[in-house]
């Protein structure tokens, strides 16, 4: 039905109170929102009421950017990037929006003139933790860059009611607390129930003959679920563009199933509603670890189907035919989590729009790009045929047909090579049968990329080798990047101000300009200011540490930080072995002149990953002993900062002297925390893994602490046969560290507690901690030596920052636009709705 809005007759008068930026107007707007939106008198309003009033005041000021952006895209029929991701780890919106809109200081002034504490209100925001770690945060940085570069884009994902759990530490153990981020309302989203769609699940398929005598298939599902979109604006930095993050919530089709209700089964009817809503209830907290759960596949298919239906609706709404779909949408798959989109687009085009296979396939291939984020075999997604067939019977048929046609082509190129065929097949038939999602993504996409040079190289030589041989032209590298808006301007205002005072502010949009800082490395006044700022942010972090853990740390000590998900391959326990080794040294030589260090850890373990949880317990147990040992005299402190998330990360990166990037070479696809630390002036101790390789290349080998085996050496050692016990037996320091753990020294005499960890190291050590141990210890000695020369350390810190330009997500997005998406910037003109009156 066409809507009958007499649009020419309605003129929108945008009230000054909703757009004005004078301090007087802002104050009035906050007060108004408190009264009319929160329904509170100022006298009884809570901090959260004030936060919400402030958030609505800011939102009002970006709505016309947002609506103009959407309207421009529709009118100009531009090509749009659709970034499909099961995770978006956005972090708090308020501060970020203020910075990108350029209204931070005015808002701060207005809030303070109202007698409120600005920071206190900012701290009220519950961050949307709709992701686990690197992959979800990368999606968020990319949305920021696309908006800033004026690239038309929509982020499509899932509106989890409960995001990543909140972490508490009790008795040294991780305890998971449900994340209720929506409990006091979310001022940044707008529900769009008018764009709801339906998603089918289960049932069976049947063939029929249509009026023209063609054989067709229809899917008769046994469940139908409603998807409701919730939109959040993504404001670019100092541009008019505000793109959209569209997240889907699952609901039952009707509030009640009336048939069931009418026959008296009230509870059955309500149950169905609960069952449907379960799909978007909770984020799976597993980082790089797969467990073929039905609900997870339902989540993936649900948001993918909603998103593709939404794209088709948008495309047809401008009067276009689906023949031109791939010219108007570039769909990027953030890992294989949304890879079912390839089969779903085929189904929508063939079964629902009656397109022929060849044309549908050509559109599909041209539309999709696939980004791989991990080489870990346990993270490669596969679904059992039984589950797949039960949930998505039509998609399984389509996948079989894609596979049949694909393998026919492979057979022509490699006749009689059945092993190759079996390796490339979309179906794994080596044991129980599975659908291989990475293979589906490779066959259905025109572009495949890794996230750092080493990672892309290893992809081509290992997990995707056969695909690389088959279509080398599809492969490229896109080294990750991070947004300098959140990870510098917002999180490190002091350093931002200093840098701006020297080189202006255009580096915020063009990070390569940080190079201009190099001319100041010998300017002693500048170096002193640099060092002073590091000192101040370390003091700030010391206060937070005391508030959160009760531990008192010395801001003059070397802040040595490892903050990331807890995982064996990331080797937080190698860091712990260094701490224990240093402790042993100090106990043996109490007067040893060492550089005081504060070891800071942050990160969550997947709730079912026992070894990772034991690693957290070990770090806390070591801390308990070291922190209160009078012989140590405050020369070492060990801190586990609880609940590492975007909010808590922001004050952590700027305070680091040393960034720990110590994964086993070949295991970390890229890393992005490594970039955030270095951008904020930390030096890196790291292996030649992921983007560390490129960071070292950029900042210079002399400004980077390198240790450990290379990826090739890791491979060789494993092939040759690796025996961790040999290292244990021949290295007295290593032996002493392991023995001390096993003696129960850190566990109140319990010799069993850490056995699973030490036994795993002694007998398997799959991530080669023992092989890299001595090299790590030696390198840490060099770090301590270097830190004694504070002037030179500061120089190295400045050079690290000056040379980080490559690692802006703006650079990464420009490469995606040029090589994969074929999209260009679309500047947004704002009709002057209401000039800023006083
Ligand atoms: C890499 N998450 C980093 C980052 O490219 C890299 C997997 C399965 C289910 C849920 N989450 C995941 C990841 O695989 C992930 O976060 N990968 C990370 O992607 C961005 O910098 O090296 O480990």
Folded structure, characterized:
It is a single chain. This protein is an alpha/beta fold and 838 residues long. It folds into two domains: 77-92 and 127-445, Rossmann fold; 493-807, Rossmann fold, CATH 3.40.50. 47% of the residues lie in helices and 14% in strands. It is built from 34 helices and 25 strands. Strands 1, 4, 7, 8, 11, 12, 13, 14, 18 and 19 form a ten-stranded mixed sheet that branches. β9 (204-209) and β10 (215-220) form a beta hairpin. α12 packs antiparallel against α13 (357-367), α12 packs across α15 (393-413) and α23 (572-588) crosses α32. It is globular, with a radius of gyration of 28 Å. Residues 833-838 have low confidence and may be disordered. Bound molecules: N-[oxo(pyridin-2-ylamino)acetyl]-beta-D-glucopyranosylamine. The site of N-[oxo(pyridin-2-ylamino)acetyl]-beta-D-glucopyranosylamine has 20 residues, from α7.
Key features?
single chain, 838 residues, alpha/beta, Rossmann fold, 2 domains, ten-stranded mixed beta sheet, six-stranded parallel beta sheet, 25 strands, globular, disordered C terminus, binds N-[oxo(pyridin-2-ylamino)acetyl]-beta-D-glucopyranosylamine
